[in-house]
Amino acid sequence: VSPLANNTSSLRPAHGSAEVIAEISAGLLAPSAYTSPKFLYDSLGSKLFEAICELPEYYPTRTEARIFSSYGDDMARVVGEGAALIDLGAGNCAKAAALFPILKPAQYVPVDISRDFLLGAVTQLQQRFPHIEMTALGLDFSSGFELPQHVQAGRRVFFYPGSSIGNFSPSQAVEFLRGLRANAGADGGLLIGVDLIKDHAVLDAAYDDALGVTAAFNLNMLRHLNHLIGADFDVSQWQHVAFFNAEESRIEMHLEAREPLTVSWQGGERDFARGERIHTEDSYKYTRQSFATLLERAGFATQSMWTDDKHWFAVIYARA
Ligand code: AVJ
Shortest CA distance to 135 belongs to which of 157, 154, 112, 153? Predict the structure, then answer.
């Protein structure tokens, strides 16, 4: 059985849909230009993100992995076996795969906007774990999505590691998590990774590394936009900017024009002054208490939390 659920590759246009073009245009034409961070992830973007996870400055992936390996058995007891594990933003599926031996899911449903990258990963994974029923969904889950009929209803465990919840504002996060809770089933829940507030220099370095991999990751969005909306961004005219905004408790990433320039795309055009920016990503940081409160607001009842010695990152299981 092919793990590919929405097998539409032959029907898909090479470029973005009219909806995607309208969404991106609206952001680029706003008084302060912005784009959704989901457009960071074409195939190259997904690979650059994998490289980011290897950087000494980018502590979240490594810290979270350490929490999983230290407390995995404890987590497995709390989560229970035989769930449908729904992996949001699965990417290369490595985090979930590492948990299969202890969580023993019956079904695995990885979801990722970077469809081709995801399918490559799942095809390999299905061979390593033939007894787990796998269904890959290549879609944007940020605005809600439907699970296929055959995904068991009673015990759905949403797996949302890596602190990707940080891409939502806190109020958007509550709304998104409410939707997950409503779909988890009576015995289901949410296993989620959250990045915690820490020394600002540590945060800044994690999003502006010495090698410039995060800069390449951010700038690659312009190449992706050229493809999606037929834009003519010249990457060399832009630079990566990232910093912790303490008032908002978030890392902000921007692309800043190095010189006055004009960008045109299908149905749009805009001038940028030197120093003008496109806001490309927010990555909200929480305290253990502020995130527990956010989960409560989303309707989750009981919570178990695991963290590292320095309290840099937290993994939480919240019961639906
Ligand atoms: C995948 C959203 C968790 O916010 O840390 C990494 C993305 N951006 N470096 C994060 C990201 C720049 C990452 N998430």
Answer: 112
